[in-house]
Amino acid sequence: MTASAPGGLNTLSVGTDGPRVAFLHGLFGQGRNWTQVAKALAGPDGTGARCLLVDLPDHGRSPWSEAFSYEAYASAVADTLAAVAPGERWVVVGHSLGGKVSMVLTLAHPELVASLVVVDIAPKDYGDLDRFRGYIDEMLALPLADLTSRADAEARFAEPDPGVKAFLLQNLRRSGTEWSWQANLALIAADAERGADSDIADFPALQADPWEGPVVWLVGGESEYVRDADVADMRALFPRTRLVTVRGAAHWVHTDQPAVVVETLRRVVAASPRRAS
């Protein structure tokens, strides 16, 4: 597994040969959240796929933005993919926030995409970021100047769910004696404060033709992020969408049912062309 920052965004590479697969994470996530799925897809000899785990802008080790924009996020990802593999097309996999970015990327830069896999998100306005406000408040309340160690941070952090706590605290970084949030917490918090005007919760109205390529829409059977009413809107943008409901999975489909996700991706990768037409 190698790290680099082509096209301006930080990335991790998994695999040495095979079709190109790009993974886009969700809010407060990082590309490495997809590491285990990418390793399984690449296989023990690394030739099953060449996976690129992308840190989106304002996340991980990628640069911060002054304002949130799905179009800007998609443009940054497009520059990164084109820099890594000029003239090649990608299987693009996006979860939650990354799923919206992957849809905008595909509509705005169709020449880069061979196949699209959207994980548990719909191309719609979710209204606000209220479901994340508790996490944001917990992160803002952590007294960074007083921290003495990561164990101290874990003890002070109020989140009761150990999985959520570990996920959020992966954003905490130390440089010497200084602690900071690697994610652009101020930008995300400001967007949450906008309530129903949140840009992150929204989905942009793009002046783009529907994309006629193959799309797999992986939806958690126990998730509330995708409703039956969303199918028409999804197929208006992506007519060849195949909806796959994953039993025993909530919003984090690839964490709850990794074997199902890996097998689905293997089939998608096997059917995807590698060069631009």
From TrEMBL:
SUPFAM superfamilies: alpha/beta-Hydrolases
Domain AB hydrolase-1 stretches: 19-256
Keywords, ordered alphabetically: Hydrolase
Coiled coil ranges: none
Classification via Gene3D superfamilies: alpha/beta hydrolase
GO molecular function annotation: hydrolase activity
Full protein name: Alpha/beta fold hydrolase
Organism whose genome encodes this protein: Phycicoccus sonneratiae
